[in-house]
Write a structure and sequence with these properties.
By secondary structure, this protein is an alpha+beta fold. It contains 3 helices and 16 strands. It has an 8-stranded antiparallel sheet with strand order 11-7-8-9-13-5-4-15. Strands 3-16-14 form a 3-stranded antiparallel sheet, with no helix packed on it. Strands 6-12-10 form a 3-stranded antiparallel sheet, with no helix packed on it. The protein is elongated, with a radius of gyration of 20 Å. It starts with 8 loop residues before the first strand and ends with a strand.
Amino acid sequence: MGVNNKKITTINKEGKATLLIFIITAVLCNVAVFMFVPQRWVFCIVLFFFIAVFCLLINFFRNPRRIFPSKDKEDVVVSAADGTIVAIEEVDETDYFMGRCLVISTFMSIFSVHANWIPANGTITKVEHTEGSYHAAFKPKSSTENERSLVVIKTEKGKEIMIRQIAGACARRVVTYCKVGDRCNIDEHLGFIKFGSRVDIYIPKDSLVCVKMGQKVRANQTILAKLQ
């Protein structure tokens, strides 16, 4: 262990423009209400509404400092997202592996940290973005029908894992930072998904799963599986 996770939280770069636009809108609206609506209780309600929404946005776009709490990063697959495990199953994967593999799915609520982390050390061999629908992220068909981004990582031992960032019913943007050929490491950011979403991680079917259904997991902290 030996690594100390200091509680340092910043605002993710994906939220800065949104927050700036919201602040400008909030100021203009509140000034207008204050000047042209004589009932002060109306101003108080509008002010309270904007403060509440601002707090929700700050919470959503928070970007906590995360360091994996172990020096042993070989052959482990770490959670890429905060949330709840909603699927652990063997499936036929047809986008890349073209065969049977294990998938571990994490559902992110609107209150989760929505920054995503790299789940394993290795090299990026594929990045692909697909437009799609916006089904509720906890539904199985969201994995193949929603807007999504696919990333494949090849570990130093030649194992391959695939990550799908999936937009949800409210999410309207999936951001992926890595590119083909990049060296990637646990502790680095993979991307960001705005407003409620899901992350699926596909691993070899002989992997040792370390989580269970319904378990709460933390990105870059919880080990999902160990590669055999």
